[in-house]
Design goal:
about 190 residues; alpha/beta; Nucleotidyltransferase, domain 5; five-stranded mixed beta sheet; 6 helices; about 45% helix; about 20% strand
Length: about 190
């Protein structure tokens, strides 16, 4: 396969937050991924929650305009005990999604557990473990990292999406091995 025939894609990963929102951008060529950008949208100085939402929308659109992603992967809010926190996080996620929709960027949502599992093999991995694994897999230099784990979490969501792209897609579904055999009678044992 020549490099001209390899699929090239840009994936934007978002880790939603109302104080600090992380983003990571991956460039995928064929079966290889490399980090293009990593950063945060720092909203801590804004007191008004509606101004924060407006800034999220504006900044995510700016990131989309800068990197022209083909797809966006976003982390789903996790279910916690604090309903107010979940509501705020859901609003931040919704605004980031609206920014992508306004630019016709398809969105895929991933649960935090799935992202951690894809990156480290452990759904209970710490933010430090996720960041360390990404640094090794993507060969990220120390000086290119940010002190915010929100950014590496976002890169993790993008990388999880990249890994999911490599999964073979089947047009048939099977409920069991017996079901497979019945639907494929010409296959030899």
């Amino acid at each position: 396969m020549t490099s001209a025939s390899k699929i090239e894609k840009i994936i934007l990963g978002i880790d939603p937050g109302t104080n600090v929102m992380g983003y990571g951008v991956l460039k995928v060529v064929g079966s290889r991924a490399e980090m293009v950008a990593l950063g945060v949208i720092d909203l801590r100085k804004l007191g008004d929650p509606y101004l924060k939402l407006g800034k999220i929308f504006e900044r995510v659109q700016g990131i989309i305009e800068s990197y022209l992603p083909d797809e966006m992967a976003i982390e789903a809010p996790f279910f916690g005990k604090n309903v107010q926190s979940m509501l705020k996080l859901g609003r931040a996620q919704g605004v980031a999604m609206a920014a992508a929709i306004s630019r016709d960027v398809p969105i895929t949502e991933y649960a935090p557990l799935k992202v951690k599992m894809a990156i480290t093999g452990n759904g209970q991995a710490s933010k430090e473990q996720v960041a360390g694994m990404l640094q090794r897999m993507l060969q990220i230099k120390d000086q290119d990292l940010t002190p915010f784990y929100d950014a590496t979490d976002a890169l993790g969501v993008a990388y999880c999406h990249f890994l999911q792209m490599g999964r073979p897609v089947t047009t048939k579904s099977y409920s069991s091995w017996k079901d497979f055999v019945q639907k494929n009678p010409n296959r030899k044992k």
